[in-house]
Amino acid sequence: MTNLSEMPTWLLFTPFILLALLWISRRGRSVKHNKPIKLPPEYFTGLNYLLNDEHGKALDIFVKLVETDWDLVDTHFALGKIFRKNGEIDKAIKIHQGLIARPSLPDEYRSKVLLELGYDYLAAGWFDRAEGLFKEVLIHDSKSEEAKRNLILIFQQEKDWHKAIDVGVDLFLQGASDVGIMVSQYYCELADIAKTKGDVSQVAYNSKQALHYDKGSIRALIFLADHEMDKQNYKQAVHFFEQIEKRDAEFFPVILDKLIECYHRLGDPNKLLSYLAEVESRHQSLAMIEKHAMVIERYQSKDAAIAYLTDRIRKYPDIRGMHSLISYKTNQSDAGELTLLLDLKSALVKMQMDDSEYQCHHCGFQSNTLYWLCPSCQSWAEVKPTMIEAA
Ligand SMILES: [Zn+2]
């Protein structure tokens, strides 16, 4: 017998959890039929085997018991979950395969057993087998949201975007509106692939589909804006870039260079300057302040740019304003001044800013790369630029 001190805590309680579950299920039935609670003696034999760490013998008894009394099935599900959670996936699989092999398995439990076995295979990394089981669930229950969500995650894992879209759209139309964001991102993945291949019509098609399933998709808007820029259709590109600022201002620094380029190509600096001033009245970022100053210098004068930065510091005396002014001055200073300014700039960076350019709003993961699917928590479109605050 296993030394109790060596057993995981959960295992010590497992037989009692099972006993409690059994008692609850029996009590419900007994109250209903006004009969005393009666537990089968084999059940205690099974619990004894479980306590003695003889899992094989315990499972054999439990699986045989259930065939004569399907009220016990909940205890099997509980036991399977505990084994799976503890990494003993082979035992969880044995329980669920044992159930599925029983010819007397009632139809009402079939989908549940298939789902549980599917989770076992997922935990074991056998995605093909899990996929087969979740599809089998849909044969019995064509609306099973649980089976569809799991299939979507398998296809996402395998980067099979077409299959993920098919199931995702099906679930979306079934009323699961939250799946829209995922479907949108899968279309963006297809747009990305098309872009790599230079297939411009597929870039446009997939981006529009992405926007259809998630009206606020920044990624889709970036694809569409880039697509218009490639076609030298700068007015339409500006339209998409400005949509990004309206829908999620945090992404504005990401597209600012391209937006400035579009206005430059359109030969409309005054509109650009008034647009930047208008956006800055709503929110500000370091990148924006610096670029705004550069635009002022480009189309007006160096003195006007410095006047803009100085005025901004007077109105909003914060570190990011000083940082911008110093950055700007480093472009104009002689060697002696430059060293001092660069030292000041790095000191300000340490005081105010985080090293990471992007952060996941869901789990806090930080990175210098913009990930659309957070590598840490697997959330879509939660990683956003940092270094931005309302004025
Ligand atoms: Zn995350």
Defining key terms:
single chain, about 400 residues, Serine Threonine Protein Phosphatase 5, Tetratricopeptide repeat, 4 domains, three-stranded antiparallel beta sheet, two-stranded antiparallel sheet, 5 strands, disordered N terminus, binds zinc ion
Q: How would you sum up this structure, described in words?
A:
The protein is mainly α and 391 residues long. It folds into 4 domains: 4-159, Serine Threonine Protein Phosphatase 5, Tetratricopeptide repeat; 178-267, Tetratricopeptide repeat domain (Serine Threonine Protein Phosphatase 5, Tetratricopeptide repeat); 281-353, no CATH class; 356-391, no CATH class. Helix content is 72%, strand content 3%. The chain has helices at residues 9-33, 41-51, 55-68, 73-85, 89-100, 107-124, 127-140, 145-157, 161-173, 179-197, 200-213, 218-230, 234-247, 252-266, 269-282, 286-299, 302-315, 319-330, 335-352, and strands spanning 284-285, 358-360, 366-367, 383-385, 388-389. Strand 2 (358-360) and strand 3 form a beta hairpin. Helix 5 runs antiparallel to helix 6 (107-124), helix 8 packs antiparallel against helix 9 and helix 14 (252-266) packs parallel to helix 16 (286-299). The longest helix has 25 residues, at 9-33. Bound molecules: zinc ion. The site of zinc ion has 9 residues, from loops.
